[in-house]
Amino acid sequence: MNVLTFDIEEWFHLLDNDSTRTEEQWKHYEVRIYKNIDRIFRILDETNSKATFFVIGWIAKTYPDIVRRIAEKYQIGSHTMNHQLVWQQSPKEFKDDVECSIKLLEDISGKKVEAFRAPGFSITEKVPWAFEVLAECGIKYDSSIFPASHAHGGMPSYPTGLPSVIKKGDMDIKEFPITFKTIGGKHIVFSGGGYFRFFPYFMISQWTKEYEDYLISYIHPRDLDAGQPMVEGLDITRRFRSYCGLKGAEKKLRKWLTDFQFVDIKTADKSIDWNNAKIVKF
Predict the structure, then answer these.
(1) Residue ranges of the alpha helices (H) in the chain?
(2) If residue 171 lies in a helix (H) or strand (E), which one and from where to where?
């Protein structure tokens, strides 16, 4: 079972970067979200694929027509309101942000929002309260666990790479962790973001075949946008992570979705035996 997800952000929504940190700064960048969303829709139509779209509230507020277009055919989830790292917020700040994003997405789409993904996979071992907040906000499905090291978060100690049930107190949330490949004792992610752009298709294809039970991808519109400008102020490592493999990424994704069938989280949920899923307590 392959699950396809998109994190709907603008090309300049880079985390932990001084020139792209605030909403005021975002106003001065070129708008590329429309052409990138159109590209994603074409790919999904041509490959007959379903996907879950985790949308930033700022995108919904600024371009509500995009949310309405997504909601016509696909599942919508929250990617927070303002794309800030969870571990940099207090529980109240995080709850206010998530609640605001959910209300906005529901008001625009007319659909219930029950899925969530944290920016930068920034729910770490240090902020387990985040899951309680999500449950209080009505979230049933989460896909914020990155079971490896990550520049902005990650949870290497998470005990499984399969769909699992997170329990904390009286609450529980169905978790769809990011897929990883174990190489040399290390967890290597390959199914989204810069990782997907970096690895050649023959490796991604082979690894996908090895994960028949469960694989989840996460693609950003900017991952497919070979013509985007260079964000100022990035060091050489950040430039590589943000821009490597852009030229061939659209073709790679199109072939991936042609060679393998992908569904959204809502569909995947119905195929999972949750009674036998691993329970992870925090």
Answers:
(1) 23-26, 33-47, 57-62, 64-73, 91-109, 129-136, 193-198, 201-210, 236-243, 246-259, 265-271
(2) strand 171-175
- pLDDT at residue 150 in the model: 73
Give per-residue pLDDT as tens, 137-180. Answer: 999 999 999 998 777 788 989 999 999 999 988 899 999 999 99
On the 0-12 / 13-18 / 19+ scale of CB atoms within 10 A, 90 is exposed
Residues of the chain scoring pLDDT < 50 = none
* Tally of domains in the chain: 1
Q: Which domain holds residue 250?
A: 2-281
On the CB side of 275, CA atoms within 13 Å amount to 0
Q: What is the CATH number of the domain that holds 248?
A: 3.20.20.370
Residue of 40, 96, 104 whose CA lies nearest to 78: 104
Amino acid at 130: A
pLDDT score, position 19:
67
* Global confidence as pTM: 0.94
